[in-house]
Amino acid sequence: MIPAALDVVEKKETIRILLIEDDEDDYLLTKALVSVRENASIKLDWVDSYDRGLAAIDKGEYDVYLVDYRLGPYTGIDLIQEAFRMGCRAPMILLTGQDDLTVDQSALELGAADYLVKGRIDAQLLGRSIRYALRQASVLAEVAQKENKYRSLFERSIDAIFVANDELRFQDANSSVEQLLGYSRDELRYLNPARLFADLNHLRNLRFNVREHGQIKDFETMLIHRNGRKRICLISVWAVEDMIGHPEWYQGIVRDITDQKRAQQDLILAEKLTMTGKIARSIAHEVRNPLTNLSLALEQLKDELDTDSEYVTMFTDIIGRNVDRIGQLITEMLNSSKPRDLDRKKQDFNIVVKETLQLVSDRIKLKRMRLETSFTTDDSIALLDRDQVKTALLNILVNAVEAMEEGKGILSVRTHCTDTNRVCVEVSDNGGGISEADRQRLFDPFFTGKSGGMGLGLTATQNIINSHKGSIEVESNVGQGTTFRLLFPK
Q1: Structurally, how many domains does the chain consist of?
Q2: CA atoms within 13 A on the CB side of 157
Q3: 320 and 283, same domain (yes or no)
């Protein structure tokens, strides 16, 4: 027994179409085209004017709109343009009585899904155009949804993310990049990236590696904020290739590691100071007692020796000076390494700086140097231990004066308030500068570039600044001078 054939009924979802057409005859012709069997899933409604068309579009009840080019004083292009302004995203097909390339281009540029010439439309063409428009609208909606998703990730990322060309010029950037560099997105598009790098060789190396290898990871460099502040950053860049594997554009991430680096340096400094403290306490214990005995013995010896002898006086003075020098070294070692007990009070930072400058004013005049000052007019009240800050700043000022040539030195002292709620004093000289190797060791205990120096002044200065939870920055170029920045929290 042969089983009875099953009747398969294909369920088709109804496509709601609105024809916006001011000619009833054209409506009847269009209705006839959608009435054929192959277009059975299409349900056609009709309005006969521009205003009624917009009113229907505003309700959003239709899947596709067929729009006549001539609508009284308006055109179908006017209607499509207004519909998109109203937020309509349903596909629109423009109908016209003549084949006009200009109209075709205008319609497609404004977002029309298709363009049909009335005299050339048949049922199959109309049905295919409608279904194509729906599929296209569905794909575009999906693309827009994905774009919004990834755009949201791009915009809300805490990391600074950017898109660039092969010259590493910005094409797009998120708000974290704007915050990191101080430039708006539009400004970044026209900005020469060379302005952002403290070392142009780093930019050249970055470009070379990206072009040569298609990517670079965690490239460490110094970037310059719009206000001149420098930040240590890690840059990762990779190429996005086109269909045939050629780099089309580049995307990258910038991570600001300045605070991380500073924390590492503070930890290293703390370890150095701890080591110095242990050495100092050991020396104080092992050396001070015999040093005291040596000093007492020297005084006793002076009473026994012929003080009229030139040689006796010379040698006892040499011994005395060196005993005092060893004692002073031990005291300075202890003072430079031990934690500072601060008496912090609200102080006007400008006044503290001016008082410290008074302590070196005679030295500046004696060496016939010029002093240039600039003091902030912003609120510079900060919690400071006045005497300790003056000690720290005095070490910097004395070093600056001694680094410059007599009669040619220019000492520049400037105060300002930062956007991170800190007060800053900037001390610049036009001396011989410091090499990069020496700059790295500048705050090491016992490191000094001065003959007869103990190398503990800057160590003590950094200890004082760290006790205030502040920071110190140094920039120097050999032959061009040095700039120290001392920053203290308000």
Answers
A1: 4
A2: 19
A3: yes
pLDDT tens digits, 118-155: 878 888 888 888 888 888 878 877 777 777 766 676 77
Asked if 266 and 249 sit in the same domain, the reply is no
Cα 489 from chain centre: 22
Name the token pair of 301: 């010896």
Residue 6 pLDDT grade (very low, low, confident, very high; cuts 50, 70, 90): very low
Torsion, Cα 93 95 98 100, to 10 degrees, reads: -30
- The helix/strand count (H/E) of the chain reads as 14, 19
Residue indicated by tokens 């026209």: 190
H/E run at residue 18: strand 15-20
Q: At 143, which CATH number?
A: 3.40.50.2300
Domain limits at 70? 15-153
**Residue 23 contacts by C-beta under 8 Å, 6 or more apart in sequence?**
68
pTM (2 decimals)? 0.53
β-sheet with 170-173: strand ranges across: 170-173, 160-164, 247-256, 230-241, 215-224
Q: Do 139 and 197 belong together in one domain?
A: no
CA distance 129 to 106: 18
**Is the same domain home to 172 and 207?**
yes
Give a yes or no: residue 2 inside a domain. no
Q: Which residues contact 183 (CB under 8 A, 6 or more apart)?
A: 191, 226
- One domain for residues 226 and 269: no
Sign of CA dihedral 98, 101, 106, 108: positive
Last residue of a domain, one of 153, 172, 195: 153
Contacts of 216 (CB under 8 A, 6+ apart): 206, 209, 210, 235, 236, 237, 238
Query: Which ranges of 305-348 does DSSP label H, i.e. alpha helix?
Result: 310-337
245 and 171: one domain? yes
Choose the final residue of a domain: 307, 336, 365.
336
How far from 65 is each of 115, 177, 265, 281, 343, CA to CA, in Å?
12, 43, 67, 90, 78
Angle CA 401–469–226, to nearest 5: 70
User: What is the Cα–Cα distance from 15 to 141, expressed in whole angstroms?
Assistant: 18
In tens, the pLDDT along 375-417 reads: 988 888 999 988 889 988 998 998 899 889 888 899 999 999 8
**C-alpha torsion 265→270→273→279, nearest 10:** -120
Q: Which residue has the tokens 């001539």?
A: 70
Query: Same domain, yes or no, for 197 and 207?
Result: yes
Residue 21 and residue 145 in one domain:
yes
Do the beta carbons of residue 250 and residue 161 sit within 8 Å? no
Can you give the CATH number for the domain in which 296 is found? 1.10.287
483's enclosing H/E stretch is: strand 481-489
- End-to-end, the C-alpha distance of the chain in Å comes to 98
